[in-house]
Amino acid sequence: MKTIGVLTSGGDAPGMNAAIRAVVRSAIYNKIQVYGIRRGYEGLLEGDIEEMEVSSVSDIIQRGGTMLRTARSEEFMEPAGFQRALDMLENFGINGLVVIGGDGSLRGGLELSKAGIKVMGLPGTIDNDLAYTEFSIGFDTAVNTVLSAISNIRDTSSSHGRCTVVEVMGRNCGDIALYSGLAGGAEYILTPEEEVDITAICKKIIQGKNRGKLHSLVIRAEGVALGSSELADMIECRTGLETRVVVLGYTQRGGSPTARDRILASRMGYRAVELLLSDSSSRAIGIKGAEIIDIDLMEALEMKRVWNGSIMDLADILSI
Ligand code: ATP
């Protein structure tokens, strides 16, 4: 294993830069040549590839986004495009690849691994929707971004005695809503994993109002079937409280990564290079408890997510 590549693919996530830095520096430390592949698989098949030096990754650990940029590539999923990607890897002599991205990106990596490339997958997505790892790179930063928005909303919401529905990211996975809702003391958290019980929501809001609460906060993940405006209308109609909607949108994707994300990314990036050095087969890198783990890439992608109902129960109890 003498030459490796690193790419970021799919949606960007804060901490991807820290992961790239860790991969590049760990490789150079171990005297391995390392190439940065720009714009994910799209850049790979176009040969948008550059050798990385120690200084190529200077001053990026604190930055959100990804210095290698990212893309989604339809062409890579076609046989001809896929073959071009393989040819590029061969041209550059790259026999080990670190892929940083979400489920789709890691699936792309799995296809490359079936074609003989050693692939290490790093979970880079704010959604935290990969089953094999407790946390993904970018999730903690996104939760903290939501939390800071919630704090601001709470101030104005209290001043006016309003209810606010805060829409956060999460089409299939409610973790951003769940963790930011618990940390932000939301009255109610709605996720795609659980049914919406409008009667229970309104009952809780009225209970709070009756004991003198000045505001109510409902966090709704974007993937919940009942839309934010419909939800707000229903709450206003049933509780009599003026209810506003705030959609946080892409603010959740950016920003300087938290210490936790930088540390996670650094540890995972280092582990990926370690595994490539040991000539391991393709693996997915994750975290369980305090330990960085690695498991077979295919097995990792076959795992089904288990919904953390106990955190939801806790949030529910603490927001009585
Ligand atoms: P996010 O969680 O932010 O959506 P992601 O990595 O899941 O990130 P996708 O758009 O699903 O984002 O995937 C990124 C790219 O990976 C795709 O554009 C495509 O090039 C490649 N890819 C996705 N799924 C596959 C697959 N099954 N086989 C081969 N390549 C794939």
Task: Write a short abstract of this structure.
By secondary structure, this protein is α/β, with parallel strands linked by helices.
**Which consecutive residue ranges, at least 5 long each, have pLDDT under 50?**
none
Tally the beta strands: 11
Distinct bound molecules: adenosine-5'-triphosphate
Order of helices and strands: EHEHEHEHEHEHEHEHEHEEHH
Coarse morphology: elongated
- State the helicity in percent bands: 40-55%
Number of domains: 2
Describe what you observe in this structure.
- By secondary structure, the chain is an alpha/beta fold.
- The protein folds into two domains: 3-138 and 257-302, Rossmann fold (3-Layer(aba) Sandwich), CATH 3.40.50; 141-253, Phosphofructokinase domain (Rossmann fold, 3-Layer(aba) Sandwich).
- 43% of the residues lie in helices and 18% in strands.
- It is built from eleven helices and eleven strands.
- The chain has helices spanning 16-29, 40-46, 79-91, 103-114, 139-160, 175-183, 198-210, 228-239, 259-277, 297-302, 309-318, and strands at 3-8, 33-37, 49-51, 96-101, 118-123, 163-168, 188-190, 216-221, 243-247, 283-288, 291-296.
- The protein has a seven-stranded mixed β-sheet, with helices on both faces. A four-stranded parallel β-sheet has the order 7-8-6-9, sandwiched between helices.
- Strand 10 and strand 11 (291-296) form a beta hairpin.
- Helix 6 runs parallel beside helix 11 (309-318) and helix 7 crosses helix 8.
- The protein is elongated, with a radius of gyration of 22 Å.
- The protein starts with a strand and ends with a helix.
- The model has no long low-confidence stretch (mean pLDDT 96).
- The structure holds adenosine-5'-triphosphate.
- Adenosine-5'-triphosphate binds next to helix 4.
